[in-house]
Amino acid sequence: MSLPVMPSLPALTTQQRDDIRQACGFACVRCGVTIYRYLRLPEGPGATLLCPTCHGLVEEGRLTSTQVQSFHTNPVVRQRHFARDRLPFSPDLPTLILGGSRQVRDTPIPLTLEGEPILIFAPPRRSNGATRISLRLGGVDGAPVQIIDGNEWLPSDGSWHFLLRGDRYSVMAARGDGLAVLRIVARNRIAVEHLRTTIRGRRLEVTPDWMEIDGKRNVGRIAGGTLIGLEC
């Protein structure tokens, strides 16, 4: 029997979102990934959190209503076997590894391109929550697209894909070469393993060891201890 549709809930209030995150353990209730959608439960009026991958299983009919409700009642992050250290559950801003600047600390916005913040990191609103991650990349037409906003996965049209691969959060464009791979080195340490985007004709590519802006390679230019590490 196929599962009833679990629609996204974009009109939730700030308090409602906070309550849902707290109830779900600040992560996907099935796998613990800290990038998620706010979704209506298939049975009853409540709401839950599922990552894009697990929500895809719902849409494919590979999860039953009973399974979804069971995960919601007992989220995986609250289970004794779950290793929180492998995902970004930290009360502090993470130390970042990117662009040859290997210890970028206390920098919420490591990079902007054409005035657009590419990545934003923020501490959780509650000490037992997860690092808040936001991501903005260029779409097929070069216009900026907000893909993740404070851990909430926004695309609903299949234009972007998300995947957890080991200790890596991978975001890929369905069309074009937009890409962001974040490696969770430790719960308060994140490496930008590969980021690639074009916004309004400006090209940016970043690895842990270097960054290229419009084809020109740079190393160690991203500053720490400031609001914005580098404006491109």
Automatic annotation (TrEMBL):
Native source species: Sphingobium herbicidovorans (strain ATCC 700291 / DSM 11019 / CCUG 56400 / KCTC 2939 / LMG 18315 / NBRC 16415 / MH)
Lineage of source species: Bacteria, Pseudomonadati, Pseudomonadota, Alphaproteobacteria, Sphingomonadales
Name assigned to this protein: Uncharacterized protein
